[in-house]
Amino acid sequence: MSARHATLAVALGILVCVPLFTPPYFMHLLIQILLWGFVYTAWSMMGRFGFVSLGHGAFMGVGAYIPALLWNYYAVTPWIGIPLGVALSVLLALVIGYPCFRLKVVGHYFALVTLALSQVVMLSIVAARDVTGGSLGFTPNAVGFSWYALQFPDKRYFYAISLALWLGGLAVWRMIDRGIGREALEAISEDEDAAAAIGINVMREKLRVTVISAALTALGGAIFGQYLMYLNPETVSGIAVSLQIVFAAIVGGMYAMLGPTIGAFLTISLNEGLRVAFATNFIGAANTIYGVLLILCIIFMPRGIVGVVGRVRLRRPPAKAVPAE
Amino acid sequence: MDIYLLEAIINGILLGGVLALLALGLNLIFGVIDVVWIAYADLVMCGMYAIYWLYAELGWPLPLACLVAIAGVAGLGVLVHLMIIAPILGSAPINQLLATGGLLFFLQSFATLLFGTDFRNIGVRLPVIELGDIYISYARLLAFAVALIGAVALYVFLRRTFVGTAIRAIAQDRDIVGLMGVDQRRIYLVTSAIGGALAGLAACLLALQYDVHPFIGNTFGPLIFMICVLGGLGDMIGGFIAAFVISQIIAIGGYYTNTELSYVLAFTFFIVLMFVRPRGIFAR
């Protein structure tokens, strides 16, 4: 039991105990931070290897809408609906990912193809307005407290679910990080042809990480829908959500395990802080500052806040080792 | 042929003109500076607000407001290059794309801050032309004509002037051009200004047809990227033709189904075509 393990245990203990003394408003913020943190972590699993997808809004939208639609129209429990939504997202990821990787659609082209995908999903939801409610949004039928319907008016349940989901996301991250796949993916992002030449199955490695990332994003979208009990094509899919995911992950730092979560924490608290500070007189003030911060982040610290902090920490030990002259 | 279908096709061609103009600007910047300005459509939004503010609020004459808007957006283009692109010119291209994405957030929210989320119209009503049973909006016809003139002017500029030749040369090989005594930084600035000016010109043409609101860039921005990629990023003639292909899909698709589905159709067509011809329809 090292100091590191002790710190982790204490941090986890605090997170578990939070619902005991937190007012509902802060619970709501915490749940949002955990859920978005989970989605941003899922995106970063691809992003850190240079596959910048602007299409994660598509996976989130599919994951959120499928269980809600099945519940309202066919009374199918989310316990079946959510896996179906995730499966559909994975299918979507394969349909887009396979040709992209086969034809070596990378960089700008990959970003723009995935951007088109998220537009297709968002516009399809809007176009099917007879079924989905279009831009007005969609409200799942509420039945009060129910495990069967996965609906809990009490925020503590969703806090527990989000916490579990987020920890699960970190575990997946760690699994990828520790596995042989990471070395392979890093080699691929450096030079695809060279990676293939030393026997890495480029297609399999890329598809695997894409599928994991899409599945987790869809799962995050589904739980988000269950928690908010309201879906809107603009808030769960489309270009705005896709960009939001990318930027929060970058601000936090997509190369470190906790980076995306820190991105979620910073962006959500900044948004809420500015919203409280400016009230509604200045809609847009928050995002104006947010936009400037993003630009500054990308120019001055492309590895994100965690990246900068990490570099400072790395620099210190050698300074100690070398005696002063 | 069905008269309404014919009308849809004609309107599609007219819409294609403005899209082609925007695709030209984006392609010029991509070809020369190797950057995708994700916020390009939002520069158009800024231009539309400039016209609205100068013409409808301050009461300036419309042509003057348009000229100032074009100059203003051209200046904005130079600012974007100096403040956002230039500092990270050496880093990964995807970082530059994302930095202009930050600009997208900034411009949209800043416009919300200044003007609110209301839809605003400059209040100019141009007549509708009747050709037999077909109705064609004069604003669209004007937009098409001006867009074509703009495209030809750009072509002549790139072919006939020294700066234009330098721009074309830099798009071909940015390392050698430096040895030939061309100042790259100056060419980048000129290119950004031209890209901005084209966005400003498009803003003048769109302001006559559409209401302006802070998120108008989201509605046609993705379309312009699709058009550029379809034509082959950096290939100006390809992008010009692709603009008409996409606008026809939207117009005819919209005639048979509805607006959103026609966009779904256009984006799906784009994705499928990317897999058939990954470097653009006209790639050799």
* Contiguous runs where pLDDT drops below 50 for at least 5 residues of chain A: 316-325
Quick check: average pLDDT of chain A?
85
- Termini gap of chain A: 39 Å
Task: Give the H and E element order of chain B.
Answer: HHHHEEHHHHHHH
The chain pair with the largest interface is: A-B, 47 and 48 residues
Rg result of chain A: 21 Å
Specify the helix fraction band of chain A. over 70%
* Global structural class of chain B: mainly alpha
Query: Helix tally of chain A?
Result: 15
Strand order of the largest sheet of chain B: 1-2
| Order of H and E elements of chain A | HHHHHHHHHHHHHHH
Report the β-strand fraction of chain A as a percent range.
Answer: under 5%
Largest sheet of chain B: 2 strands, antiparallel
Oligomer: heterodimer
Helix-strand layout with pairing:
The complex is a heterodimer of chains A (325) and B (284).
Chain A: H1 3-21, H2 24-47, H3 56-74, H4 78-102, H5 107-127, H6 129-132, H7 155-178, H8 180-190, H9 192-197, H10 202-228, H11 233-236, H12 239-252, H13 259-278, H14 285-300, H15 304-321
Chain B: H1 3-33, H2 40-57, H3 62-85, H4 93-115, E1 128-131, E2 134-137, H5 138-160, H6 162-172, H7 174-179, H8 184-207, H9 216-231, H10 236-256, H11 259-276
Short synopsis of the structure:
The complex is a heterodimer of chains A (325) and B (284). Chain A is an all-alpha fold.
